[in-house]
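Exam revision sheet. Question 4 asks you to relate a sequence to its structure. Input first:
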Amino acid sequence: MNAFKNKVILLPMTAGLLLALAGCGGAAQAPSPTHVAGSATTQAALTTPAPATVPDAKEIFPKVTETVKSATSVSIAGDMSRDAESMKFKISGIRDGSNSLAEITMKGATSTLLTADGVTFLKADKEFFTQNVGQESADAIESLVGGKWITVTDATKFGTFSIASLLDSFGTEGLAEADFGTITDQSIVDLKGTKAFRYTSQEAIVWIAAEGDPFLLQMQPQGSASQDTGTMTFSEWNSVALQTSPAKDEAISIPGL
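Answer key, structure tokens:
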């Protein structure tokens, strides 16, 4: 069987996206009352209510950076595009990559990578295999696998898409050193039931948890200077449940994978 081409790649969401917070500027707006719903930080929120005004970016960005740097686990969902390429993904797990689940849809093909107990498993649709190894091999794989997980001996064939690669993209200083233009608006909003600080700059909109620890909740690049478009949503900071390996009769090994 032909070797896999490395087509499961993450769009280059490095500093151009993940550091998409602006240089500090703009006045805080008076918040409107919002409903507070449960989240990964609900317990902290019970003892740390949201302030009456939005903190200055210079004050909160370094704190957000620290929560990212110290995070042990997180779930990230994205719907991103760059030029003619687009990707939808969901990835959750432990920062060191020892336990995670990632589902990626790109170019009409969907693949899922599961890592648990020191082993990585792959489950994908026929279009994924067709794009990577050709129609004939894809037919053979589909017939052989029959919907089971495939045990992967070399996970690097599928790129470096991981919790660590995403979080480490913030760099050492992370949001604290971002410079994407002046903040044009900042307010307290309700983001799907969670109270959040929203900072709008020339190149991005960023939502940060307003109660409890200042976890990053969502990012949305905007503006002509940003090559990326779409939305990334963050949840389950430091509280992602561990994945379990598939049963022996639910996995199969294929030479070359």
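Marking note for examiners. The longest helix spans residues 57-70.
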